[in-house]
Write a sequence for this structure.
């Protein structure tokens, strides 16, 4: 059975984005890029909330047509263009980006059907709103977090106070040269 994995970058104080949703606080370097590339190899279906879906849909197709795009960006743009994607939204009417399925309701049922399909994991990329909804529904099986050496003070929280207690088992952690710590937790059921 496939797992639902949340992959998110967070500040030391638990924010997944600044007040505008920006990620300018990330300590992004070659080593973190390599970590992200390793994670991408485990993805069968990216899962997005509406906001992240619009950001991805608006950006990656433009890279495919950019004559100045580097090889790595082009490869990732092709991957994200071609892979089956799922966007969860109660307000979107259509999701017409290549290979995208829109799920508007019965989220737990739909996710459990996706889990039963063969293939690699279902991975939420950021999408703090979707992540919180999945946490409340008990749908996340594993967390792959990168904790960045910065305190933002405010912004978009990844974890809310109304999420139920959920014991975790640490599977792996690494400290990168930039001071970023990668954490891979599995939910203990």
């Amino acid at each position: 059975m496939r797992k639902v994995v949340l992959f998110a970058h967070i500040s030391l104080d638990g924010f997944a984005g600044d007040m505008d949703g920006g990620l300018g606080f990330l300590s992004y370097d070659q080593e973190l890029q390599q970590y992200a590339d390793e994670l991408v190899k485990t993805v069968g279906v990216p899962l997005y909330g509406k906001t992240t879906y619009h950001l991805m849909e608006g950006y990656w197709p433009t890279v495919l047509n950019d004559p100045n795009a580097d090889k790595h960006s082009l490869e990732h743009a092709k991957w994200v263009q071609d892979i089956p994607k799922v966007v969860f939204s109660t307000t979107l009417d259509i999701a017409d980006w290549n290979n995208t399925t829109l799920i508007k309701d019965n989220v737990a049922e739909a996710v459990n059907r996706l889990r039963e399909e063969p293939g690699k994991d279902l991975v939420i990329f950021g999408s703090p709103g979707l992540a919180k909804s999945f946490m409340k529904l008990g749908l996340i099986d594993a967390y792959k977090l990168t904790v960045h050496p910065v305190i933002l003070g405010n912004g978009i929280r990844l974890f809310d106070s109304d999420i139920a207690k959920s014991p975790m088992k640490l599977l792996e952690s690494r400290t990168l040269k930039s001071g970023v710590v990668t954490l891979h937790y599995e939910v203990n059921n």
User: Anything to note?
Assistant: The helical segments are 30-40, 50-64, 71-82, 107-116, 128-136.
